[in-house]
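Human:
Focus on the backbone:
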Amino acid sequence: MAVSIEDIKKLRDATGAGMMKAKEALEAASGDFDKAIEHLRKSGAASAAKKADREARDGVIEGYVHSGRIGVLVEINCETDFVARTEDFKGFARDIAMHIAAANPTYVTPAEVPADVIEAEKRVYAEDTKGKPEEIAAKIIDGKLAKFYENVCLVKQPFVKDPDKSIETLTGELVGKLGENIVIRRFTRMELGQL
């Protein structure tokens, strides 16, 4: 199916995708705008998975201060200084710093949560599932652990500006758009009067 230049431009404006990617998505979706956006999101996630092994050593350290009471520094890495200087990347870094100030995560990823903390959580959840069949109890514990990660791990949290997307999804979309691996490396959050 042939797609119009206007439709390609409209999709590019809405998603930030390149011209060829927008054209391919519209053709794959038979001109359906919503399906084309979904196609781009899926291809962005696939692209992010392919790029995850590439080394990200450049990037920015972004700061955010909220009302003089909460301060955040976050290091976000990408592969090149060219991408680090783009408005999309800098805007993403600002959004992540603001999100950290608002959501107060403890860790960046579930892999950073200490094993003893996970075991303590599992023991608490096991108490709640006493008397239930073992396979059901295991599913309940897994579900509660996933919710725990969503509360304490930055990448699993729903983004404060768009709760339908997790930080992980947001990062994957940016990887698809910019074409480089992007890693939220670490952060520090300070709140006045808190240790």
